[in-house]
Design a protein that fits this description.
Layout lengths: L5 E8 L5 H9 L4 E5 L4 H5 L19 H14 L11 H19 L3 E7 L1 H8 L4 E9 L2 H14 L10 H19 L6 E5 H6 L1 H11 L37 H5 L2 H11 L2 H4 L10
Parallel strand pairs: 1-3, 1-4, 2-3, 4-5
Helix pairs in contact: 3-4, 6-7, 7-11
Bound molecules: zinc ion.
The site of zinc ion has 7 residues, from helix 3.
Amino acid sequence: MAEDRLPLIYIVGGWHSGSTILSILLGTHSNIESIGELNAYERRLWTAKADSSKCACGEVFTDCNFWSGIRSDLGQRLGNPDIVINSSDQEAFCNNNTELFRQVLARSGKQVICDSSKAWLRLKRIAECDRLKPFIVYLVRDARAVGFSALRKGRRVGKPHANKYQYENAIKHWSYVQGIVSRGLANISASWLLIRYEDLLEDPKHWLSLILSSVGLEFESGQLDLTDIQSHQIEGNRLRHNRQMKLQIDNEYMAELSDEQWHIGTQLAQPFLSGFGYELGRERA
Ligand SMILES: [Zn+2]
């Protein structure tokens, strides 16, 4: 029955698109639990990594009250908390994800989950599960900013030559993801909303209100107060470990990319850039 389906907000999109910030902003709502990238559940919570990986609350997962509680609830209900969230069998996928979402809602006392896994395939399978009701936020960011973020991350993690941190590769991947998501959304029955990251940061209240009204909730004034963030997000950008955040557009790419990089990036990312309404030329401040 449609009314019994568990409501969730699913953020789909590419790498470095701002999904961690959006999920933090949604998670500050009193009725939303942002759990981060749930497709990392097995990897983070029931392998050896659970002893060393950190939850967004700052604890390693085995010491996090929230996730240990959920795992203990799952264990009581199913006999084993080590469920396969990414099962290739659709029925098991639907059962296991529904069970986990149900425990997250029960333990948090909230009404809606935000899953920012980003992956298209996971979204498609959630949409095909008759017990889940996703509202989709397709989050996009200027490809040239994404390419620049990849370069910067490569430098930060000391792997400036790794393939995935190359500017051109990041932009090719961006285009690939937009192709998959755009084609997929044309054939999906769930409702969705396209948001440009830049617009979100320009007017967060407007965009958050639109998302919230789609899941029957209203914007709360405290949502933009990011001075004391409490969350248990799995995986995602390192920002999720920050207790305090400032909403600020990062336009460093505009000044830092060379003319050649800008040109190459613009060529590689067309026609999606134009489709999303991004300027092809560079407006230097
Ligand atoms: Zn935690």
